[in-house]
Structures are given as structure tokens and as C-alpha cells.
Amino acid sequence: MLGQRMIGRGFVGSLGGALVGLAALAILGSGCDADDTSREPELLFDLPDASPGDIVGLVARDDLDVPAVEWIDRLDGTIHRLSVGNDTVTSTVVARIPVGADGEQRGLLGQVVVDGRRFAAWTQPDTFELVVGEITGGNADTDTPNSNARIIWSAGEASSGAIGGVLGELDGRILVGVGRNTGFDRETGVGGAILALDPDGTADQEPEVISVGYTNPWAFTAIGDEIWVADNAAGPDPADDTVDDIERIGRADLLADRADMTRTTEPGRAPTAMIPLPDGRLAICGFLDNELRAYEIIDGADADPINPATEERERAELERAGTIMPCLTGATIFDDGTIVTASLGDPGMQLTILQP
Fold first, then answer.
1. pLDDT for 74-91, tens place per residue?
2. What would the mean pLDDT of 133-157 be, rounded to a whole number?
3. Matching Gene3D superfamilies, A to Z (predicted)?
4. Residue 305: predicted pLDDT
């Protein structure tokens, strides 16, 4: 399995010993300013056997006794943890879920940790049903799949691609981005959607529909009550479904339909992850450019939507503000501002760290 190979390989190349002293020991710091050009991203962990698209679902675990970053191997259904101690860096497999990974984008797709409880989204073996469940217990370091999965919702059978599966959290609820090619869309006809789930609910619960009309809402994050979304694929133009649309980014909590969100002015990026920065900006990872880019949040624009609760215009547009570091399929940020991404390096996938 990929996790076992990484444990055996550890840090690679000439950076090996230096990174234990520089990156690993400095994972906790005093803040992060994305414009500080004196800091350079460094290799944190090499993933030589992973292909682009395999490493997703990065989570910063500030809640553990020893800070750690976790990530998903989409194809084999494992969740890995890289714990950073005072003098050692070790990687372990902390969960293993049986998945159906045939096709372009199936497998173990997303995870979120809420009050110490782990939730994940994956496609089931054989049926390819996209489900969300709570993962507990199990002996993850054996060949026996983790059988302790309590399903809290099902999106029905998922096609090969554009199925979503990224998870987030807002006010104790589980947010899930569901793509266009799932049973949920076939039943409702609303396309992809951002939904909210009760973490204590059962598989037949009715999700709260927050925003619809997406192709594959893979990059989203919650900042306070704001839910920002960047669709991974442009999909058809809402005004003319015979032509492709332009990528759009906006506030799902204010705009009930993706078609009302602002079209981006950049070339297509295929966004794969989104994180809030300590200075109030957003950072978005792009699959087509392998970059984590910063964006200023613009408020007060005439085009911004009006919040019916306050009758005031709300910020809902972004303006590019520079490139932070490499990023292909995942990004996470620690409380102190340390950023870790899943990026494409030389010779392949790797975890990259940018210290405060």
C-alpha cells in the first residue's frame, strides 16, 4: 500500500536530514503572511508512487497531542497521518475503508474531523454508491479494512467522474459537495450541490440544500457563516448548454444557484482545494497549473448580492493577489498559519510545506 511504502522511504534526496530540523520542527510558528518572499516552500514528504489525482483530502490536526497532517490515498481507501514530533517524523495509516475506485474519480474522496469525530465520503465497492459516513475504531495497520463505518447519507450510484465527495464543516453540520453525475442529481435534477448533513443522522436523512447547479464542487471552505465555492469543472453555460461555461467562484450561502456566481477572468484552473488565510484572504489550489493562489475578497461592489437578513450587500467576489506555493490536489492550514499542500514535484507527488 502507498502508506507503507512512504513509511519505508521517509524523507528523500539531499533535503532528508535538513527537513527534519527545518520543516518538521518548525511546523508550529507565529503566523503566516503569504506575501513574505523570504520564506520558501519546502518538501515535507515524498509520495513517489502516487499519480496526480491520487492524494486528496488534506486535514491539519491541531487537536492532537502532536500536530499532524492527514491525507487520503483515493485509490486504496487509506487515510495517512504524518505526525511531527520534537525529533522524529513518522507516517502511519489511521483508517482504511473498502472503496470502489474503478473509473476516473471514484474512491475515497474527502474527510473532515469534527470535535474529534472523523467523517469521510467514498464510493462503495461493486455498487459505486457515493456515501458519507463516520469512521471509528478498527485496526488500521492490518490488511483488514476498517469495518466501523456508520453511513449517515447516500447520494446514490456515482458515475466515473464529476461526482464530488469533498467534505467540510459549518456550525457542527457536515458540508458535502456532490457532483452532477450522482443519483442525487438524477433524482432531483438540480445538478451538483452543496449540502448540509446532520452528523448524527441516518443514511435516509434529507440533506439541507444550500446551493445547486454545479458540475463538481470540489473546492469549498467555510469562513464564519460564509461558504465559498469554486467549481472544479465549468460545465455547460447556463444560458446556452451547447457551449462550455467559464469557471465561477462565489458564496454558496448567499447564491442558491451557481449560475448567479461571478465568472472568473483567469484561464481555467480546475480548482481542487480552498483554504482561508490568516490575513483574511482565500487561497485556491489549481489542478491545471499546480499553484496555490491567493485572492482578495472584494466587498461593497454593486454586483454583490444583498443579504435579505441585513438588507446590505455582502462580499462575494475575489481578485487575484499572487501565487503562494505549489499545489495540485489538496491544501490545509494549521492554526499558526503553516500551510501544507499536495503538489506535483520532481519526480512526482509530494507534500509541500510553507512555514510561518
1. 999 999 999 876 566 778
2. 76
3. TolB, C-terminal domain
4. 59
Do residues 179 and 164 touch, judged by C-beta distance below 8 A? Answer: yes
Report phi then psi at 4, rounded to 5: -70, -40
Q: Which grid coordinates are listed for 56?
A: 486528496
Measuring CA to CA, which residue among 53, 188, 32 is closest to residue 109?
53
Q: Which residues contact 222 (CB under 8 A, 6 or more apart)?
A: 168, 169, 170, 175, 228
Q: Between the CA of residue 262 and those of 63, 208, 254, 298, 311, what are the distances in Å?
A: 36, 24, 12, 12, 20
Label residue 144 by pLDDT band (50, 70, 90).
low
pLDDT tens for each residue of 25-68: 333 333 444 444 458 999 999 998 999 999 999 999 999 998 99
Beta-ladder partners of 134: 119, 150
Q: Give the CA dihedral 255, 172, 174, 110, nearest 10 degrees.
A: 110
Residues 45 and 72: their CA atoms lie apart, in Å, by: 14
